[in-house]
Design a protein that fits this description.
253 residues; alpha/beta; six-stranded mixed beta sheet; four-stranded antiparallel beta sheet
């Protein structure tokens, strides 16, 4: 599979505080890559930096071998890189229909359209004329993902998919995401539910204090290993990283 995103020694800060430290990894076409780690591990900042919503301090982000490190976020969307941010950030006073259609102008041609998004998220069909701010959390998450899909992304970045949702709503969102995965869209997702991560991810990347400490196929990491990396109780060398792993693993040891 071809490499879509290549990240090399990426650093990002919040003021003087380092949030992403020397992160190097690759995202290949068809990957379902899960980023896991404790709060403050740098997962959200990494996603936002990849999407162009947060400035990189140093290092490079390449899209199909083209340097996009300093490319504005809206141009990355046009290239096929879309972010579903934490907290969803919908236009609360606009209808569901309007929230979906507003993304169409920023996107590319492809398989995702208003109708195909409704096919993937049928729960939105009876809510098209409702204001987004009046929806349940699960419905809002469906609109946020649908809005991103309207741009026809090749890589979809999903931050905290299940945050604040009921178990039933989470299941509904993931049921719909399985259809998205089946269409071949590459996903990079931040998720705290390790059981769900192991069920859907093809690769798992563990972060600790801004660094990548494990990068391996999901079937090569046990729940105990993931948990150990999560809390910094295991050295990265024990994780059997795959061929995408980089020097950042050693630096974090």
């Amino acid at each position: 599979m071809s490499v879509l995103l290549s990240i090399d020694n990426l650093n990002a800060h919040h003021g003087q505080l380092p949030a992403v430290r020397n992160v190097s990894l690759q995202v290949r076409q068809g990957d379902i890559l899960a980023l896991v780690g404790a709060n403050g591990a740098g997962k959200t900042t990494l996603l936002r930096t990849l999407a162009g919503a947060h400035r990189a301090s140093s290092g490079t982000v390449r899209w199909e071998d083209v340097d996009i490190t300093h490319l504005p976020a809206h141009q990355r969307v046009s290239e096929g890189l879309a972010l579903v941010p934490e907290g969803r950030r919908l236009f609360a006073g606009m209808t569901v229909r309007e929230n979906l259609l507003v993304a169409r102008a920023a996107g590319r041609r492809g398989q995702w359209s208003f109708d195909t998004v409704l096919d993937a998220f049928p729960q939105l069909a009876p809510k098209l004329n409702a204001k987004a701010g009046e929806l349940s959390g699960g419905q809002q998450q469906a609109v946020a993902i649908g809005r991103a899909l309207m741009t026809n992304p090749r890589v979809l970045l999903l931050d905290e998919v299940s945050l604040g949702l009921s178990p039933l709503a989470v299941q509904g969102v993931y049921d719909a995401l399985r259809g998205v995965m089946g269409q071949g869209t590459t996903l990079v997702l931040v998720e705290q539910d390790l059981q769900r991560v192991q069920a859907v991810a093809s690769r798992i990347v563990c972060m600790l204090e801004g660094r990548v400490v494990a990068d391996a196929p999901a079937d090569q990491l046990t729940r105990a290993q993931i948990t150990a990396h999560y809390f910094g109780a295991q050295r990265p060398e024990a994780a059997q990283p795959n061929h995408h792993a980089h020097d950042a693993h050693k630096e974090a040891a």
